[in-house]
Amino acid sequence: MTHKAAGPEIEQVIQLLARLPGLGPRSARRAALQLVKRKQELMSPLAAALQQAAERIVVCEACGNVDTCQPCTICQDTRRDPAMICVVEEVGDLWALERASVISCRYHVLGGVLSPLDGVRPEDLNIPQLLARANASEVGEILLALNATVEGQSTAHYLMDELEGSGVSVSRLAHGVPVGGELDYLDEGTLAAAVKARKKL
Description:
Distance between the termini: 69 Å
Number of helices: 8
Largest sheet: 4 strands, parallel
CATH architecture of the largest domain: 3-Layer(aba) Sandwich
Strand content: 5-15%
Radius of gyration: 21 Å
Order of helices and strands: HHHEEHEHEHEHEH
């Protein structure tokens, strides 16, 4: 017989937290305990923020980003370069690029990558929308910022084939040695990509 240390409401919070990536049952229990201990300053504001977000968050019909307005803030930003669309797998990748502040363009979130083993086909992703956007007169370049995984690479190749003949330039992120990286600690795949992407000085 398993004994429950907390009431059903707290147990439900723990179970829901445990579903989040990076949080196992133990981490979820610690997080729930902090929420309970700091009910007024943390739990109540968090619950209110989550409720408000659940009511207001929408997926941008243009690019697939999540925001509280339609189209999203990025799509509405007139300071961004409309000639470039940066294609990413998930919204988290878009956020990472925005945090780095390395480009000021429009985005397109695919919603995943092609994976025949998992049954993910082109029609399951936001690929038709991307092809339609690529045909817009102002678009001159599509930057494929997909992860350096087997699925990411195969998706990039598929998109390059689909975009051929559209008149837009297709580029990819460079892969290889990270800034501050030591060769001795890098895996063979990263080293191979770095050698293939070498540049003349």
